[in-house]
Structure formats: C-alpha cells, structure tokens
Design goal:
Elements (H helix, E strand, L loop, with lengths): L1 H37 L6 H8 L3 H13 L3 H7 L5
C-alpha cells in the first residue's frame, strides 16, 4: 500500500510540474506575439499560423493589443469567426 501512495504522489507532482510548464509556455508565447504586434510585424504564412493556433484567451489579449496599435491584418486574423 505504501508503494501505491508513493507512485500516486509522484504522478501528482509530475502532472503539477507539467501544468506549470504549460502555463509558462503560454505566457511566453503571448508575450512574444504581443511584442511582434507592437513592432508592426509583417504577416507571412508562418506568422499567420502562430496567431491562428492559440487559445481564445490569448487571442482576446492579443486582439486588444492589435486594436491599440491599429494593426489591421492581425485584427482581422484574430477576430475571424471561424477561429
């Protein structure tokens, strides 16, 4: 029984660390893309994929930044109803 508790505790710790990593990675992605918007990024197919493959929360944050800096291409890309 003691080994089962140790294994369960180990799995919980590993899942918690993975969750922390995912949160950190999303925050870094949002930060990097917001800097790109501020620096007036040119939309290419590669950049377009970066903006399309995001969660809705991050898209909303980036949309407000794009509206603030009047970046029409990214506003259209992020506010597309299909996403």
């Amino acid at each position: 029984m003691e080994t089962v508790i140790k294994i369960l505790l180990f799995l919980i710790i590993v899942l918690f660390l993975y969750w922390c990593y995912i949160k950190y990675a999303n925050k870094q992605t949002a930060k990097r893309l917001s800097e790109s918007i501020k620096n007036n990024i040119t939309i290419t197919p590669y950049n377009m994929n970066q903006f399309i493959n995001l969660s809705k929360d991050i898209k909303n944050i980036l949309l407000t930044i794009a509206i603030k800096y009047k970046h029409g291409d990214i506003i259209n890309l992020l506010s597309n109803k299909k996403n």
